[in-house]
Amino acid sequence: MSKLFLLRHLKSQWNKDNRFAGWVDNPLSEEGRAQAKGIAQPLLNEKIDVGYTSPLIRNEETVLRVFEGLTNTYPLFLHLDGGKMQKWGDFQGDKNYQPMYVSEKLNERYYGKIQGLNKHAVAIKYGDELVKQWRRAYKVAPPGGESMEATYKRAVPFFKKYIVKDLAAEKNVIVVASHNSLRAIVKYVENISDEDVANLELPFGALMKYEFDGKSFKKYN
To answer: Burial, 76: exposed, middle or buried (Cβ in 10 Å; 0-12, 13-18, 19+)?
Structure first.
């Protein structure tokens, strides 16, 4: 039996400013950084073998802040998306670190033309209902951006290829990612319908725990 931990990043500066952050690389806010100790507490007695995150700094900074409160090891970011960060990041050395594999497949939904804009201002311009559809519906995309379905189609195949493989090898895995990439994974893990996923909301720093028996996932507290 292996365990899966899904953790949404802590509150970023653009979350605080009520902007559509998407793929814009903004850091954690002061409030977000202050959350880290409380998030680490439920993980203190859990064994973690490997982790996955995205290159967005709010995700990587969440990893750094949370791991400060966990163990004497440190996270080492290992890139999976090709290029010199992956090729030249190869090394020989000891194992006194927590491997955290990095991929854009776990990035937030791309918000296209509304990325960087204030959410309240966008709702005034386009209407609350349409903006709600852009943010929560499965098949509706913001102008020039990704739908939830498009996010699912990049995040879940990555999840199956790497993370389920580790879980099947009886490794405990933590995934630190953004709201919509995690919503996609939760949709898959919990078999949530296209319609019902609109009601799935994960607060900043939300931690979800699952047991994996080789075939299915069971949520636990």
So the answer is: middle
